C-alpha cells in the first residue's frame, strides 16, 4: 500500500501549484502546458488543481499576480536610479517574462478574466508612470498623454526587440520629451 504524503496546508499547496505553473509557462509557453502537467509538476492530482483554480486561466492569473508581486518587491531598489534606468529595469523585467506577456495579449481576446487582469496591469503601470512624470515636474495636464506614450513605447520595445543602446536612447527621448513638457 502506498504511503500517504505528508499533509500540506491549503496555501502551501496553492503556492506549489503556482510555482510549478510559472516554471512551465516560462519554459514551454502557456499553450504547451496542460493542467495535468501542472498537477504532476506540483505533486498533486489534476482534480486538486481544478479545485484551487477552476481553469488554466485562473492559474495564469495567479502566476501573473506572483510575478507582479515579486517585481514590485524588488522595485524598491530603483529609487536611487535615474528615470531612464528605472524604465530600462521595467522593460528588462517584462522581457524576462515575454512568454507571459505574449500569452496575456493573446488570451485577452478570449478570456474575460485575463482581459480584466490586463486592464488592471495597465492601470497600475499608468499610475506608476504618472507618478514618475509628476516627480519630473511634468504639469498635471500633460501627464496623461505622456503616460500613454510611455506605455506604447515600452510595449513597442517589448514586442520589437532592439539592442540595449537603442532601448536606452528611445527611453531617454521619451523622458526628454517629458522634461521639456515640464519646462514649457
Summarize the structure.
The chain is an all-alpha fold and 184 residues long. The protein contains 9 helices and no strands.
Q: Can you tell me the CATH class of the largest domain?
A: Mainly Alpha
Question: Can you tell me the residue ranges where pLDDT is under 50 for at least 5 consecutive residues?
Answer: none
Strand content: under 5%
Shape, per Cα inertia axes: elongated
Strand-pairing-aware structural class:
mainly alpha
Instruction: Tell me the distance between the termini.
Output: 78 Å
Based on CA atoms alone, the radius of gyration comes out at 20 Å
Domain count? 2
DSSP summary, beta strand count: 0
CATH superfamily of the largest domain: Tetracycline Repressor, domain 2
CATH second-level architecture of the largest domain: Orthogonal Bundle
Overall pLDDT metric: 89
Percent helix, as a range, is: over 70%
SS element count, helices: 9
Order of helices and strands: HHHHHHHHH
CATH-derived topology of the largest domain: Tetracycline Repressor, domain 2
How would a textbook summarize the main sheet? none
Give a description of the structure.
There is one protein chain. By secondary structure, the protein is mostly helical. It has 2 domains: 6-54, Arc Repressor Mutant, subunit A (Orthogonal Bundle); 61-183, Tetracycline Repressor, domain 2 (Orthogonal Bundle), CATH 1.10.357. The chain has helices at residues 10-28, 35-42, 46-53, 56-74, 83-96, 98-108, 112-135, 140-159, 164-183. The model has no long low-confidence stretch (mean pLDDT 89).
